[in-house]
Specification:
About 5% of the residues lie in helices and about 40% in strands. By secondary structure, it is mainly beta. It has a single domain, classed as Immunoglobulin-like (Sandwich). The strands form two sheets. Strands 1, 2, 5, 6 and 7 form a five-stranded mixed beta sheet that branches. β8 (about 110) and β9 (about 115-120) form a beta hairpin. About 20% of the residues are buried.
Length: about 140
C-alpha cells in the first residue's frame, strides 16, 4: 500500500453497512464492489467498480459520518437459460466512515463505463496553504 492510500485510509475507513440501509431494488446476490481511493491536495477520490449498473440504480448517501453506497445490476440474460457464466449480477453494497477532515456538503459523484467516481472534498482547515515569502 503506498503512502497516499495510507493517508487516505486514515480519513476514509471501511465500515459494514447496516441492514436498514439495504437497497430497495435488489437482484440476486450481494457483492462488495472493489474500490480504490486516491488523494489530491483538496479531495479524496473514490473509484468503485460497478459493472453493468445503470445510473438510476445507484444510491449514494451520507448519513452521519458514513458514506453509504448501494447499487443493483439487473440480470442480463433474463428469460434465457445460462450455459456458462462468470459474471455475477446482483446488488453492490459498501460503506465508508468519513473523517471530520472532509467536507460532506461538496461530495460529487458520477458513473461512467461501470466505474463510480466519488469526489469527497477535504475541509479547508486541512488543505495545504501556500504562504508567500517576502524579503
Amino acid at each position: 500500500m503506498n503512502s497516499e492510500l495510507q493517508k487516505a485510509g486514515s480519513e476514509l475507513q471501511k465500515v459494514e453497512p447496516s441492514r436498514n440501509d439495504a437497497p430497495k431494488r435488489s437482484f440476486g446476490r450481494m457483492y462488495a464492489p472493489r474500490v480504490d481511493v486516491a488523494e489530491t491536495e483538496d479531495a479524496l477520490i473514490l473509484y468503485a467498480d460497478l459493472p453493468g449498473v445503470k445510473q438510476e440504480d445507484v444510491s449514494l448517501t451520507c448519513k452521519g459520518d458514513e458514506l453509504i453506497l448501494h447499487a443493483a445490476c439487473a440480470p442480463r440474460h433474463a428469460g434465457k437459460k445460462p450455459v456458462y457464466a462468470e459474471y455475477g449480477v446482483g446488488a453492490f453494497s459498501r460503506a465508508f466512515r468519513l473523517a471530520e477532515q472532509v467536507g460532506t456538503d461538496g461530495i460529487e459523484a458520477s458513473l461512467k463505463d461501470g466505474v463510480l467516481t466519488v469526489r469527497v472534498p477535504k475541509a479547508a482547515a486541512v488543505r495545504p496553504k501556500r504562504i508567500a515569502v517576502t524579503g
